[in-house]
Amino acid sequence: MTIIEKIIAAHSNQKVVKPGDIVDVFIDTRAARDFGGANVVKNLLDNGLTVDDPSKTIFTFDCNPGGSDQKYAQNQHYCRQYARQNNLRIYDVDSGIGTHLAIDSGLAWPGSTFVSTDSHANIMGAIGSFGQGMGDQDIAAAWAKGYVWFKVPASIRLNLTGKKSADVSAKDIVLNLLSIFGANKLLGYSVEIYGPEVDKLTLSERVTISSMATEMGAIILLFSPTPAVLDELKALTGKGFQTITAGPDAVYEKTFDIDLGKFVPMVAKPGHPHDDIAVDAVRNLKIDSGFIGSCTNGRIEDLRITASILNGKKVAPGVVLKIVPATDAIWKQAMDEGLIKIFKDAGAMVSNAGCAGCAAGQVGQNGPGEVTISTGNRNFEGKQGKGMVYLASPAIVAASAVAGCITTPDQIPAEPALFDVTSHTSQVIRKEEKARVEKPTVVEGSVWIIPKDDIDTDMIFHNRYLTITDIKEMGQYTFDNLKGFEDFAKKAKPGDIVITSKNFGAGSSRQQAVDCFLSLGISCILAESYGAIYERNAINAAMPILTYAPEELAKVELKNGDRIRVNFETGELDNLDNQKGTTINKFYEAQLAIYRNGGLL
To answer: Residue 68: what are its φ and ψ, rounded to 5°?
Structure first.
């Protein structure tokens, strides 16, 4: 078996599992964050469920550890109250990013399973652990049962050959991979990474690469821990772990050999992490701000690299540089090593540990028109603010902050570029009785054709509305961050059907990006493919989603506003306006069972 198959088999009482198998997987550690935690608790209370094993169940407050938003503060306090009543551990606002805490504290280990409301929980691939981000209902089920259902993914083997250039960082490696595979070529796969240079990667470097699996559409990017990485884990956790490897006859659906020697320092252009170009193409582009941190680049190694560039220098006039360590332990280590003093002397702002701008909380947001270079994992439009965000390595961000424009450490100008002077709790805990309603398996409605690939969850339901827990309030915000469809919620009618393209729902694990369609009464969504987390969230919420082959859908010659009939059990699709019919992919058995149940919970 492959690594993912070994882990799933070991956690599902199976001797062997294969791609496509649907099994119940035991979860070693079950986490919820500050914005998702309140919805997890609400789901438990609304369905009369209790926590299966408090010793394996945790809260991590990392999205907005400052509680600077009233809704965040309310939700955090609500979660604290629930934790006290149920003897749950909280890694509170002083702790840092939950996924990093899991690695550094031994809550995850090689061969383990870990779930969180963080869509970057697959960062656990860095240590050969199966981590997954999931929506509120999934996590509630994990808390209540200890298991979640999962479809075993097919595996891809990625061989990185050749020698890495000295100026190519781990962030550059993953940006180069994103430029090759984009956001959906690895969609739904477990990817194992191998090669001589891969064996040399440190724990922090593996964390950087694995943390962007979600941006590549992959279930997870997995590394088999080397003795050196196991030593790092032992130093952090005080525990000795065994490595996990694929079997010698493991079966991979695809294998790619990629020359690491051809990789160059890169940046991702604003809008998409996979829209990558060599840094030389945007060198000297004026910036307003820089951000160093996130689960991708907030490790002590990242801060050391940053300090080596900032030492004895100043951030360019008018440029704002924000630095956020991943965990409080890393923050303290940076202070002990004198790194914090270097940052402050250079004119940078240093915040308490957490996710910062990536989660629309704490620090790191930018304003309209602001150009930011960031070490984050996402630069979706509106994700880190209203401005434009370029993604890059800590070295490039630090150098650019000093230069006042995008550059590399070896080409920081003597003089920086200057600016042209002309230019509520009672609502959360309310229990609502749910009447069991027979769910229709055949629906009819008018179609909305949205021919766009990679529509991410920020476009569907923006993160500024994530504190909303009442589904009835969600519909009005549907697609208000998708250009050309900002008025969708005002025009859509109950029963309408949305038809879109590849990788619909890419990005975050937010349940609201599904629930907003339920709120509007949309009868179903058809797409060529879905983001892995989004697909689970929709199925678990009994939101009908189906996939189609483009050549089959073309047979019915659809246009906007046509009325169609869709049969979930057979896949039959009929255009009622022109009497043309075709067949798309029907519900699979588990999906149909959850749908008829009215949802997972």
So the answer is: -75, -10
Q: Is 417 within 8 Å of 467 (Cβ atoms)?
A: no
Q: At what angle do helices 532-540 and 136-145 cross, to 10 degrees?
A: 70
Q: From 77, 131, 66, select the one nearest 360 (Cα to Cα).
A: 66
Give φ, ψ of 416 to 5 degrees: -70, 155
Give the mean model confidence (pLDDT) for residues 71-87: 92
Beta bridge partners of 149: 24
CATH topology of domain 436-596: Aconitase; domain 4 (3.20.19)
113-116/29-33 β-pairing: parallel
Within 8 A by CB and 6+ apart from 338, the residues are: 307
Please state the φ and ψ torsions of residue 288, each to the nearest 5 degrees.
Answer: -100, -30
**HEC states along 279-329?**
HHHHCCCECCEEEECHHHHCCHHHHHHHHHHHCCCCCCCCCEEEECCCEHH
Domain residue limits, the chain: 3-262, 266-411, 436-596
Question: Are the folds of 3-262 and 436-596 the same?
Answer: no
Q: What is the mean pLDDT of residues 537-542?
A: 97
Amino acid at 397: V
Are 478 and 516 spatial neighbours (Cβ–Cβ below 8 Å)? Answer: yes
Contact 214, 120 (CB under 8 A): yes
Q: Which tokens hold the place of 290?
A: 């820089």
CB 180 within 8 A of CB 258: yes
Return the pLDDT at 437. 74
- Report helix, strand or coil for 578: coil
Phi, psi for 355 (deg, rounded to 5): -80, -30
CATH number of the domain located at residue range(s) 266-411 in this protein: 3.30.499.10
Instruction: Give the whole-angstrom CA distance, residue 129 versus residue 485.
Output: 39
Domain 3-262 has CATH 3.30.499.10: yes
> What backbone phi and psi angles, to 5 degrees, belong to 63?
-75, -45
pLDDT, tens only, 17-62: 999 999 999 999 999 998 789 999 999 999 999 999 999 999 999 8
Element of type H or E holding 518: helix 512-520
Asked whether the beta carbons of 564 and 584 are under 8 A apart, the reply is: no
Backbone phi, psi, residue 222, to 5°: -110, 135
Instruction: Indicate if the pLDDT at residue 427 is higher than 50.
Output: no
DSSP characters for 211-270?
Answer: TTTGGGT-SEEE-PPPHHHHHHHHHHHS---------TT---SEEEEEEGGG---EEEPT
Q: Mean pLDDT for the chain?
A: 93
CA atoms within 13 A on the CB side of 225: 27
